Amino acid sequence: MVADTPAPYTLSPKNIDPVKPATENVKEAPVTEKPKPSFVPNAGVMSIKIPSLKDIGNTPETIAEEEDPYLKGDAKEAFTFDDFLREWNTYASKIKTEGKMNLLPVFITEVPTMLGPNVFEIIVANKVQEDLFRDEKPYFLNYMRSTLKNFDIEVNARIDKQVAVKRPYTSQKNISIWLLRTPGWPN
After folding, report:
1. 133 domain-assigned
2. 3-class DSSP state for residue 145?
3. Is 148 within a domain?
4. Is 116 part of a structural domain of the chain?
5. Counting Cβ atoms within 10 Å, is residue 104 exposed (0-12), middle (13-18) or buried (19+)?
6. Which of 2, 6, 53, 90 makes a 20 to 30 Å CA pair with 45?
């Protein structure tokens, strides 16, 4: 008896369906230049600025103009240092009412110094306060420039190492009592 074994299946040219290459029906898309990410320094740390879909087709100059947060104007009225300080204090009260308590010491600790007719400098205690002021600066300058009607006003922050005073976390009275009770400390 002979067992019926199926013949092995082999591929022959008549078993294969001819497939048309997919490239025949595909139209080539126009090649467009992709926007390259730009590196923006941020306090010593490099970060990548991801382009927005709104920026496609815009030149870097038009994007920079759209992102400029400062008000533009031609007004250059004269003002006194007292006028500047009055508006400085008004802005400090505004910050307080908005609840920006981290920024408030920048405006109430030191009085700004007038370096030139429209140039001022504020001394801050540390890098954190400098960063807080830098973030608030566009809103502050827009306020000052529009209120005093002078668009040449410039205010910069500078860290002064002498302002940063290290203070103990306890009162002077507690330190004195501790020193008196410390063995080996001269009484």
Report:
1. yes
2. helix
3. yes
4. yes
5. middle
6. 53
